[in-house]
Design goal:
By secondary structure, this protein is mainly alpha-helical. It has helices spanning about 1-15, 15-40, 45-60, 65-85, 95-120, 125-135, 140-170, 180-190, 195-225. It has a single domain, classed as MetI-like (MetI-like fold), CATH 1.10.3720.
Length: about 230
Amino acid sequence: MLELLIEYGPMVLSGLGLTVALSLAAVCLAIVFGIMGATLRLSRNPVLRMIGRTYTTLIRGIPDLVLMLLVFFGGQMLLNNLGAATGWWSYLEISPFMAGSITIGFIFGAYMTETFRGAFLSIPVGQIEAAKAIGMTSRQCMIRIVWPQIVPLALPSFTNNWLVLLKTTALASILGLHDIMYNAHQAGRTSQEPFLFLLMAFFIYLGLTKISDVGLRALGKRYALR
């Protein structure tokens, strides 16, 4: 067993960087989608509110894997059909990394929407009104009043979303992305010891979530002291 770990372990660990990169790319997109979704949900325009509500409801009702396969295969087909119809491009290929990061970011953007929306609604309206009354612009109000309070309010829910997102990246292995899960599966097939390398992947993901949890808890304490 030790010999197999020495021989194939580096192969599994080689997917660690790609898994972390995919997670970071996806969470950045999720934050962008979340802010946009929260803005729509909080809008006074009923049409915009409906768009935001449709986004969160629809995404939470579709399995992650189904949506990922739709983006990878259907999105590529749609782009190439559009290029053929317009003549703007001949062929575009969506890489597994791009499909995985866009899909996971889009999915978790729906959860981030509720995170940011809930944090904003927790801020007393009187503070915003007082800021405007003393002549602050909307931008100044957001930077000085709203944002410093949104971060600590949203951080607990954001932490949960990040930990789930980190584990969800394992689904991208089905697209052929050579991440931890894909490499562990290949190592298990080659060595005929699938359980051993799946167990190795288990502990790697556990380590990543533990490090993330400790880091985000420390960040939460830092903001709580302000």
